[in-house]
Hints:
InterPro entries: Ankyrin_rpt (IPR002110), Ankyrin_rpt-contain_sf (IPR036770). ANK repeats lie at residues 70-93. This protein is mainly alpha-helical. The chain has helices spanning 3-11, 35-41, 51-59, 74-80, 84-95, 107-112, 122-128, 132-142, 157-163, 169-179, 194-200, 204-214, 221-230, 246-252, 256-265, 280-287, 290-297, 300-303, 316-324, 328-335, 351-355, 359-371, 380-401. The longest helix has 22 residues, at 380-401.
Amino acid sequence: MDAVLFKAAAEGDIGPFENYQTCLDQLLTPDENTILHVYLGNQSREPESTDFVDKILEMCPQLLLQANKKGEIPLHLAARYGHSNVVKVLIDRAKARPTDPESGVTEAKKMLRMTNEEQDTALHEAARNRRSHVVEILTKEDRPELSYSANVHGETPLYIAASSWGQEQEKVIDEILANCISVLDYGGPNGRTALHAASAVGDHERLVTHYAAFFSTWLNISVVKVLLEYDASAAYIAETEKKRTALHIAAIQGHVNAMKEIVSRCPACCELVDNRGWNALHYVVASKRTEVFKECLRIPLLDRLKTKKDNKGNTPFHLIAALALKLDNWLLVFRFTEEGIYGLNKQKLSIKDIYNGRLAEIQEILESLEDVGSGPFGCRRRIVLEETNEKNKKEKDASNKA
């Protein structure tokens, strides 16, 4: 495809192509993008007219399903960029084609399920880019048969939608839940579900305003509510690797409102622990948010977790004892702790023993708290920031005293 034709395609100028009707499918860019790929990828907003797409497909019907090097057909691009009117045209064109006599699958449904090199369908693209109008069209068009497929990263469209943020996020999720058969059986990489993702995602606009005061992200609770209303069993699904549930994820992020929502709808999920035996309250301690920890103790189901031991026999308060030596805000929590009810860990240490300076054990616990901050839903950045601020505060206090 030379520069003149590329420019014409990008601008939706049909004229230059009228002399190429017999070989339009041979006009390709180095990435094997066709005229339609170029056109759809260069529209900054939804085209007011679908004339260009209609006329090109009239001239060369095979362009409808012709893929580029990445395996993307025009429907992938129309979905990605939110060109809902073009999506309708492409579907109507596919519907006009005869049904495969062997499979009985219509060309429209075949097109809707076509995947690119990463196994993304057009619905994956629409969900990732929060194109709610396109999601509505795609899901309604393929029902009632549409069930979930994951891409090469293990992501379903619902998982992708729940992992993102933005004004259209809730509507995208609503459309998927309303029109698809299976949404939470398998949702994301490493065994995570859409609920795991929703429990971790924050609203970045609010983060800018409130970060300095709270060192926290703010969760869109409505997404968690929608997912739990649709299938509460999602709260009991654990990741493949670390065996964390949505409650663990909400806890490490300090999202106490999400924790309340999950616990109120799925109380038994409080019993679930990760691969180290940590319950949700261990994770709250690891978040280093004392205000969240205190709030959790006001929730009876979470308060009962304070005496539960992990695989090494440490209760959440054993972790607090180690933190109390390092962070002043946890020292205040520790000072008002009733010691006897927490017992001894497998090293036969009480919380008082740890606080009184068994350095090897303290270092091991502190390292375990750091380790929980790694990974896609971790909080290492917040831990580093809090420790840096704590260090700066102490240095400032020492300077003032001097």
